[in-house]
Amino acid sequence: MQTPLQSSYTYPITEGGNIFLKTNNFSIKVFPSDSQEISINIFANSNIPQLVIDEYFKAITEADSLRLSSEFPGRTWGRIEIQLPKGMNVLSLSTDNAKCEVNDMNVKLLSCSTSNGKIAITGCCAEEIEILTDNEKVVLDDVSARSANIRTSNSKIEIEDSHLDNIDAKTSNASIVLRSSRKGVSLTSNYILNTSNGKIDVCMAAEEGFEHMVDAHTTMGGIDINLKNLTYAVDKKNVGMQSDVQIKSENFDTASNKISIKANTTNAPISIANI
Fold first, then answer.
1. Is there a domain that residue 109 lies in?
2. Which residue range is the domain that position 261 belongs to?
3. Is 232 in the same domain as 148?
4. What is the pLDDT of residue 49?
5. Is the backbone of residue 16 left (phi > 0), alpha (psi -120 to 50) or beta?
6. What is the pLDDT of residue 239?
7. What integer pLDDT is reported at residue 238 of this predicted model?
């Protein structure tokens, strides 16, 4: 019978520092604390008899950085919970075959990488967000960032109630759903959304004084655009035919404030509208 194992660690860390964590087969959960230290709880399950967590977990301090890593043997899995100061410079998390969850953090760079695991970012503020997984869902909820680069496959990308100046999101065989407004730092925003066999559904807050350009492509689906100063519709009813729309508002070329949206999918509709 498997015996659950647990080990805890505490290291000094101040706001503005860098955290790097690399593991595998362990889920990661991060949330903030008021303490000037990082607290780590590791919960492990293993078929290896008499496994000692301390032998496989390492922490290396480098100036303002803390590098954490684990190299557990096969047939070992579990979760790592991390509590640290709310404001950090870099928060980089990497695992495999497990989910990654970050809550209520303020960072300059937030990077989450896994495979076959969900990535969920909630209540976070960042300059830049990088997300990489496959075969699992990506969820951003109440997130603020200058840019978000998101990659997955065979699963949905869902962005809710967020403030993002620039988005580059790509998946396959699933939908991309975006409910967002701009963070408001950049005068020009670019949204690049790519998938296949799934709808693209975009709802954006209307921006006063901003002009829009849309470049949208799909097959066997309609395209509906209903933005400030820009309305267009293609109702594609003939099976096997392609829908292509390249359209911009009248004053787009001369405007200082612009929002460009590129949306590509297949076998599904595209809808882009103001909230």
1. yes
2. 137-275
3. yes
4. 84
5. left
6. 46
7. 52
- 14 falls within a domain: yes
Q: Is there a single domain that holds both residue 75 and residue 105?
A: yes
Domain final residue pick, 76, 92, 122: 122
Paired residues of 159 in beta bridges: 140, 178
Do 109 and 175 lie in a common domain? no
Specify if 131 maps to a domain: no
**Residue among 82, 67, 66 at smallest CA distance from 33:** 82
Spatial contact of 138 and 152, defined as CB atoms under 8 Å apart? yes
CA distance linking residue 199 with residue 139, whole number of Å: 16
Q: How many CA atoms within 13 Å lie on the side-chain side of 147? A: 11
Q: Are 123 and 138 in contact (CB under 8 A)?
A: no
| 249 & 179 share domain | yes
Kindly state whether residues 85 and 115 are assigned to the same domain: yes
| pTM tops 0.90, yes or no | yes
Residue 54, classed as helix, strand or coil, is helix
**Mean pLDDT, each 10-residue run in order, the chain (275 residues):** 82 93 97 94 91 94 93 92 96 97 98 97 98 97 98 98 97 97 90 98 92 94 90 64 87 93 96 93
Q: What is the DSSP string of 147-178?
A: EEEEE-SSS-EEEEEEEEEEEEEE-SSS-EEE
Looking at the fold, whether 232 and 165 belong to one and the same domain comes out as yes
Residue 81 CB-half CA count within 13 A: 9
> How far is residue 182's CA from residue 190's CA, in Å, rounded to a whole number?
10
Domain assignment present for 200:
yes
